[in-house]
Amino acid sequence: MRKRIVTGFGALFLVGLLFAIPAVSQPFHFVVLGDNRTPGNWRNAYEQPPAFFDNIRAINLLRPEFAVDVGDLILGVSDTAMVLKEWDYFDEAVSHLQVPLKLVVGNHDVRNSWMAAVFQRRYGPMRYSFDHKGSHFIVLNSEVVGHRDHIVGDQLEWLRQDLQQHADASHIFVFLHKPLWKDRYISNWNKDVHPLLAQYHVDAVFAGHEHHYEDCGERDGVHYFVTGGGGANLDRSGEAAGGFYHFMWITVDGDSVRYAVVRPEGVKPADVVTSEDYARWEGVLSRPIVAIRFSGKETVGTLKFVNPGSTPLALSLSWSLPVGSTWNIFPRELKVGVPGSDSVSLRLPVQPDTVSVLPLPRYTVKIESQEQPAVTTSQIPALVPDTFVRRWLVIGPFELGDMKGEAPPRGFLREYGPEKKIDLRKALKGLLGKCRWQLVEARENGYVDLLRALHYFDPAVAYAVTYVYAPRGRDLTVGLGSNDGARMWVNEELVYSRHVGRSASPDQDVVRIHLRKGWNKILLKVENFGGGWGLYLRVPDFSGELRFDPYGPLKH
User: Fold this and answer.
1) Which residue of 125, 127, 326, 374 sits 20 to 30 Å from the alpha carbon of 361, by its own alpha carbon?
2) Which has more pLDDT, 239 or 442?
3) What CA–CA distance (Å, rounded) separates 18 from 535?
4) pLDDT attached to residue 4
5) Are strands 204-207 and 222-227 parallel, antiparallel or unpaired?
């Protein structure tokens, strides 16, 4: 509790004390959840998922004094009429909640200025604060158009003044959608915002966006939490890394604040998943457990798994093969024990589809023990060599335009300069003024991060180009993944175009292309609705005869 020091004499001292000490905080409970939106692959974009209703049922049984939802309340599709329908279905879902609900905007809720206006018209300001029984609550907007992932300008000044005006509150809690304190975000949080929160003794900060639970620990007295298990599709890292549906239960009682995690089927302590747990399991389960190595003589599959804990585990592996392909893996199902702090390595007989290779088979791994719930992850195997195109020239951002209905925005179809001619010496007019081609290297996993390269967080399009040298003409199948939609040209021929909102993963779409003898230009145009922005391109070439160069004939 924040206390004032008061001096005085006799009755004046008593009177001064009565007026100077803030009201004692009354015990109360509130809950925090986030990312209840429809999963991206759900049958109807406007419906709220079953897990959200399970959380509502559990909250109603516990009856806190209010709830806070930290954003991504709807999927936010491109059709304007559908967006309104999504909000109507959200309203219907939360009408079953028997306690007041405070809302935080997420990137899916306000993809553009029109959606931001819709939210404000229906629900009010996107940043605000309120008081409850001596405690103060601050809701920030991490999705300000033009300043996404940043708390800057008038919002930062508003936060500073609000903290100053409520410095004597018994407790202060802050809510926003994205956990901007994490290193993976390009943000001013740790430079400008965290010192401010520490100065005014903020108790805790809650965010979502990442679809798991994580106790991120305490820094300078400020406790950070990620709570993104409201109903959307969970992170693929599994339950041991926080991938389960839940909400947080916070108890405020005098000077103390206690945190708990409630799954609809049970109550867990706040440290059920810490940042250390998340990093350990995310490192194990977010990367492929199975690799397929191509060589000139044979194709070999290998399963490698390292048990990150001391508890023995049982690992089950099952395969789903692409329809119509000639892939074959034996056995299709297996189960193996993994001792604590040990590893397992198995050889898997593999017969690939030698015609197109893609799409790859998908495997599901289930990990069980006597001390924790089962963990399940579904992935595609790693390829060795992985054959991702790793070096690109990129340019942007350019205007995308408003999304109205199912039709692509005008910028998605508009013919900007790179579609006419690639001229590395010429600057082009973009959303940030003059922009030029720049060399970008893909991450280790093959992902080309346009968000980090271009430092632009609002709706836009950008281009990426590379060249492939083929000693002979040939047809082949390539795997494309993009965030969000993309168009692709090979030697001026449009071979792929899809306007879609999604997160990128390898081989989301398989495209058949033709390479002529000599240099071949591959040009990609990638749209961004807000949030992540990037691409994968896999060009399987196990003969090793193709050469990749982002400059291609421009320098040769």
Assistant:
1) 374
2) 442
3) 62
4) 31
5) parallel
